[in-house]
Amino acid sequence: MALAVQGLKKSFGAVRAVDGIDFEARPGRIFGLLGANGAGKTTTLRMILGLVAPDAGKIRWQGRPLDEKTRREIGYLPEERGLDEQAKVEEVLVYLGTLKGLSPREARRRAAAWLERFGLGAARRRKVKTLSKGNQQKVQFIAAVLHDPALVIFDEPFSGFDPVNVDLIREEMQNLKAQGKTILLSSHRMDQVEALVDELILLRRGRIVRRGTVAALRAAVPVIKYVLEWF
Ligand code: ATP
């Protein structure tokens, strides 16, 4: 159930957004992609999702290239967020769930359980726009995991989240990890992810400049300096 990326490359004109990236993310582990804005994190994730075509490289999931169907099954919390504000909370989740292959009935059942868990049971029939920003963020998280994906991609999941929700999302990520999901997590903030990630790559200008566990990176003082310099 591993995701393997080999020699991935993508340029936009003269910009080498991703310039030869290799890594392997495993089930029951949280794999971090760290780097400053523009380091190539989103482009890498969008290539895995099939939203950007690579110039070179291979992406394999469970030993096989990702096809359209498997790609649709990936759970994805995009960096650019936004829900249909005029729609009702439950409607949005059921609609997105059916796009991911759930029956409307099953999507409704799961949405209800998740909303209850996040203290939003009573908000089911309210329009998205009447919810606080924090509650909209919770709905967006639910949308990413509703169909119980084996591979989940979180692109800068903490940016714009208030501290209470950051803790909630962290806890939910740990739960997903305990369930054996393969999780990719991108961030430009080491401090927000170091307690979560099992392994990480540091990206700079589309290249991997360091890789390993947080403990290994921490053990090397010059690396910490390096991290601080670039993050
Ligand atoms: P951020 O958190 O700001 O999204 P990132 O690490 O995810 O940063 P990318 O979004 O992957 O970085 O961008 C890497 C580089 O590629 C940047 O220089 C960016 O301007 C450029 N880039 C990304 N997408 C495009 C595009 N569609 N067209 C042109 N340039 C792009």
From TrEMBL:
Residue ranges constituting the ABC transporter domain according to the UniProt record: 3-230
Single GO molecular function: ATP hydrolysis activity
Family assignment from sequence similarity: Belongs to the ABC transporter superfamily.
Keyword ATP-binding among record annotations: yes
Protein name as catalogued: ABC transporter domain-containing protein
Keywords tagged on the record: ATP-binding, Nucleotide-binding, Transport
